[in-house]
Fold each of these.
Amino acid sequence: MKGLPPALRRRKRYIAFRIIAKRKFEQKEVVDALMDSLIKTFGEFGSANTGVWIEYFDGERGIVRCYNDAIDKVKVALTLINQIGDVRVIPLTLGVSGTIKRCKKKYLEV
Amino acid sequence: MYDFLRFVPDANIDFGFENYVVFAESKIKVNKFYKARLIKAESVNELISKLKRVRNDEIVGVYSSNLKVNREAVMRKKVDVLLDGVDRKLDYKTIKLAAEKNVIIEICFSKYVKANNLMRLFEEDLELIRIINKFDTPFALTSAASNCYEMRTKKQIYDFFSFLGANIKSAEKHAIKLIREYYDPNFILDGLEILE
């Protein structure tokens, strides 16, 4: 929701990840896979309060945004992804940070 | 920390483990990794006959979907680990017995990648971890991967199982102890060490 006072804004975290596979992926494919995994694991209601979105993805490495209190759920969902489309993948969580800038600098070396 | 696998991995990707323990039924070349014997049995007689052929100086892991076999395996001196999979069956008594006999119960991640029904797996593992915490049963958190796509980093596996309530430090301690028991010449017994 837009226009919330600072005290009511949710705290966010940024998870850096890497997808190892035989080919590179589009951001939309990864978003679909992550959402599917979240809903399959925690259900629609459980996934509702996670605030998940992919902020950055270059085909292999990326950053997922989520709320601070949903970080464990998102990590579990990310770990449980085993294929994107028809391609088998290894999703690796690289680390968690409080800002996109720091996340990129620390884990993605961009 | 060590990961238990069912294949010989490629060393290209760093998953954050110190080394790997490769469980295999037949003799294989494991290069720099630790080798362990995998025994698959569907009846108690089969288990006993296979255990007779095992040497005393190798790590032995038993995998069975039969509850009776798992209970018998826990009581055998040669068995070190009860391996995990999609259809492994354990009950309260077996877990309690494993704590007494010092047999490690493996809880693996790869079954979550293989299986379709995650709900049942989550339910079983939550209950298993609850009983393990009650009796302080030795256990190990592993990937138990049979190919590279089932492997995850050490941190991912720990995060996943700590979400289910597992005590990570305890799991780490038991895996290290198992390796030291077989591969560290200074290891004698729990709490004893040769200094000079």
Amino acid sequence: MALLALAVLVVLAVAAPFVQRAAPRRAGAILAAPILLLAAGFLAELPAVAGGTFASSSWPWIPDLGIAFALRVDGLALLFAILVCTVGPFSILHAGESLAGHPRLGRFQSTLLCFMAAMLGLVVADDLILLFAFWELTSFTSFLLIGFDRERADARRAALQALLVTGGGGLALLAGLLLLAIAAGTGSGPVFSVQGLLESEALREPAAWPLVGPAIVLVLAGCFAKSAMVPLHFWLPNAMEAPTPVSALLHSSTMVKAGVYLAARLSPALGGIALWDNLLLGFGAVTMLGAAFAASRHSQLKKILAYTTVSSLGLLMLLLGLGAAKAAAAYLLAHALFKGCLFYCAGILTEETHVKYAEKLSGLARLMPMTAVAAILGALSMAGAFPLFGFSGKELALKAELAAGSFGLPLVIATVVTAIFTVLAAVLAGIKPFVGAPPRLDEPSAESHADDRAAGPRDPAWPRLLGPLVLAGAGLVAGLAPGLFAKPMVMSTAASIAGSAVPESPLSALGLLWPPTLATALSIAALVLGIVLFALRGAWRRATDPIAAASAFGPDRRWNAALDGLMATGRLVATLLRGPTLTGAVRGALIAIVAIIGLAAWRAGPRPDLKEAAEGTTLLDGAVVAVLVISAIAAPMVGSRMGTIAVLGGAGAALAAVFLLYGAPDLSMTTIAVETLVVVIASLVAAQLPRIKTISGAAARIRDLGIAASFGLLVGWLALSVAGRSELKPVSDEHVLRSVPEAYGRNVVNVILVDFRALDTLGEIFVLGAAAVGVTAMLGTARRRGATP
Amino acid sequence: MRSVIFKAGARAVAPLLVLVSALLVVRGHNEPGGGFVGGLLCASAFALVALAEGVGAARRLLRIEPLRLVGIGLLVALGSAIPAAIAGFAPFTGLWVSLQLWDKASPVKLGTPLVFDLGVYLTVVGIALAMIFTLEESDDDAPAGL
Amino acid sequence: MTAMLPILVPLLAAALALALPGDRAPRLVLLATALFLPLVALLVMVRVHESGAIVVHVGGWAAPFGIAIVADRFASIMVMLAAIVGAATVLFSSGEAPDPRTDRARSTLILALLAAAAGAFLAGDLFNLYVWFELLLVSSFGLAVLEGRGNQLAGGIVYVVLSLLSSTLFLVGAGLCYGAVGTLNLADLGVRLAELGNPRLATVLASPLLIAFAIKAAVVPFVAWLPAAYPPLSSAIGALFAGLLTKVGVYAIIRTSTIAFVQEPEVIGFAILTAAGATMALGVLAAVSQAEIRRILSFHIASQIGYMLMGTGLALVIVATTPSESVRAELATIALGGAILYILHHIIVKTNLFLVAGLIERRRGTTELKALGGLAQSDPAIAAIFLISALSLAGLPVFSGFWAKLVLVRAGLDAGAWIVTGIALATGLLTLLSMMKIWVEAFWREPVAAAPPPREPGPGWRPMLAASGALAAIALAIGLGARPAWWLARGAAEDMLARDAAAARVLEGGPETPTGERREPRAPDPEEPRR
């Protein structure tokens, strides 16, 4: 089923642009229908999964590395699969309407379908590498979707920001997953199978701690970046630049929950380890509270929803840290239902009224009753009102915290405060726009478009309405009669998170309300206080202005500064790497060379045997060496090019003499011929060059002299030190021995050139040929340039 | 510079130099010499003509574009690998024939390495002349003091 | 013989390009040869994988006495990559208008460059390697000069000066090695340096050579030439250089440090790892800050050389320090295999990104980011090719770069090399940033108001697009079908790490000769006089 679903989504993604072109008006429905069938298929698997039978399949991918294309559908995976396959098609339908006529709609639907495939793959993957691959694919498709309105700079910035934050987290995650796999393998190659990892005993061994400790930090860093935990949360509110279908699908119900998913997935293996639990609890609690506070101060519809999403993600992380599997599962489901619903409603509101701010909207219930029903149901669920499923989720969360004993108390307080803020946000975003005085449509709004105003806001057609209504209805049904689908989903998900079946307990709203407990009382108190706060929201915002200004809720503001800093550093590094000037670059390279070889030589400490080296040296040798040394020193001293060329010619002649003295007349002859030719050519060139004016200052010359001399001395020192160190005969002895009998030549040098090492000679004549071609071409182009100034 | 004496001298010396260069190649396998030195010497003969009578005259004397001569030389050098390859040995394996020119003479050994050396010779001639001709021509064309 | 074909065929073609009459002949010879070379490389690859490494004793002279050409699995992969890069860039450049004044020189030099690259990959002898390096340098400089536009010469001079420095060091190193142990054959060098019994001295001998290769590979602190030399080049030549030149240096580092200089792997490995970390980090930082596509790509080359060195250094350190023998062999193979897989992916992808820069230039007349925009709308084909290549480069799964990065990171973590692994991961993120910067600025954003309208692609557009598209397809195939790519890389790494077997293969068993006897290498006879 999982593989079939993946295949269907990929096929649809490929087909989407063509479908869009062929049937522009019905494309949304055509693309959404097969996915809803997939959702039904997954739902049909629910009884079996709830009963503990999981479908799994595996194909070898890179067996040499232990990587498999393995899929497994357990309770947790199934919950997400169903969410993807229900919320997903609603987004497609919504986009088909709201973006109708957009030239890039086909590509948009295709990307959305790609995302769905990636998200589905992520949750059903049973191989860490496969999981990671899908994880990154969701980040990248999210990037493309946020940047859909690519003409707007804000959208481009938000897209890049989301990609970098989640991508950076992804890299930490990769390292963390690899460490876990290595630790689980205990020296016999990493375990990439997720099931294998969860069943591994090795992770909890003290010996594995040096790997597991860093792994926990890295994996959670990845999860936190993806699920927008403070302080990596800032990308998510900005991601609201994306069109509504994207916000509803990616940034509330599925992709941002990938971090939660992975933390839940690894809970059986890592839950109970203090570091893991405390990180989840700490970051979860801070995020939950902080984001809810931020939400309470916003009035833009999508921002309110975005911040409450961040807050809910914090609560989920917190619950995982507590080990409250059932509460986490229930809240996960509840949040996906009500938040998806509210995002669609917010999208419809903005599309119909062209107003983004909740404060400016009121009394729309009469104009758009169906939307109002869906939004109010969703808002009530979000506020945790009886009898919606949001109530059940919050009750279970509070119960779990109360059961946690003494350190649960601060958590309970935080959760209640969060709940108060959430109620405010829910009423403002989901209820306020629909009640009260009807909108004064005659007053022209700055954000409205002239041609749309005539029609006025009204309920959209079914493709946009279906999603919110179904999700809101599901939230109501789940609260009233969880046995229909919510209970098996929650119980099997909780079993996956806990690693074993969890005990039965009431899940319906009624079952949780009665008999009342402390949790019930707190829940009701939060609801009441939240409504009070809603009424006083103006005063609340004014009162909290200083806190908001003072609090460091501004990683987003520092984002630009950070990027600018990165660019400035980069430019500095680039200048450094290029070298300020040509001579600077060469000087730097030479210093590095001398340092590295010098270090190696200093370690080895070779000593030249000067006595042996001097043995058998004649006066003639000395004279030739003297000529060489003098011309080397003189060459840079001479003020004119011609002079330098002449001096270098002298050095060449001395070199030829060396060859002659050591019995290589051939080399000597060739050297003289080459040197002569070089002097001639160099003179021809030099005659055309301008006169040298200044070379460099005295200090620079002394520094350069130092560099050059140390390089030369080092090489000379090494040459004297290593020559003849071993008793091994050089291969040239063989050349001498074999020249006449086997190569039929008495001139060993020539035989080496044309026979023993003919390939080298062949290469060298090609080098010379290429040089001739190059020089001819260079002079040719130079002349052409001169001819046509 | 282009005095009559120099011209006449160059005309006289150039063929001699070419002859000597050829000799250097032929005997190179046994005595000092070889394709490389030979090639340089031969090139200097043409360079002399170029100096004496101008590049145009030297080019006419050579009859072939120097770079094409490079190509041909490289082909000859590469070609010396072919006989061995056809015979199933590693490329550039020397294959030799022994020629008894007349009865009492010591046999002359000819082999693919000599062909290779000939290729080197032609290549070097071409390279040296390509550079010298181009440089001298640009010398003529370019305005002074550029 | 087969093993030498990748060298001899392009050499022959280069000579023909010079010798044949007619203005159009060189271009035809070039195109035909470049498209034929992948087949030659395939032949070598199949032979090597069927029956093991091929050793050719050139001229029939046994190693270490003569020159050995060695085609093992690593070399055969590199030869194949060079052939693919050559075919793609030549096909691409066939879309450019002919210029009878430079076509002959250009064709000759490109063919010489391809031969030199193959020669460097197949050389089993230090001096022979030097010769191919020289040919590579001279032909590449000739090509750079030939392009002759803008500040070409200024950039070219840095390249030439540093390359000459590299050549000098190479010669010094080769001379020192020969002076110390009297051989130039790489395998024999390893054997004799071991007999020398002084590991630290062996490292001294290695240092000039490794630095010479590091200059070629543009390793920090020797990168200065790369950002100066590449950006001004025309697209096809730039792509050819970007794909091949630096990788020859990396290849030489891997080759010599696994077969010749094996006395102190932990020291050399540590040095390589340090350089790898610095190169990765500094290269990518510099790349992120640039605002012109070719300059961005050039700095990325350096950065990615770091990844290749990371695998190499890790393998050496693992060989030296891991106690358990079975773990050691496996882990070292994975690390080196990762480096080789990275090379494999990088050559294809980086070549293609330079080609994409050429396509963009053809359409818009510039590659400055601030003057571009709207390419996703106007040229969806370029956008698709760029996206595939860019995501591969950034190492996003399941593109080709991901697998290489995955293997390297896994080896790094397993070996406990935290710092360099961390740098590698962070570098991946910054690479993604700079690739997406290009994407956002050049493809997404609306074109700036002052920008000239897109030009008509004109004649020759099809071969250009085909060349680039083919490389993108190969990159995609490497990514999705990671199994064969990893099989190749792993096999190559195994060949490299089985040093004793590799040395025996080269040094034992002399070639057959026309006289019917085998020329075996003679045992050293200490009684005979040295001179």
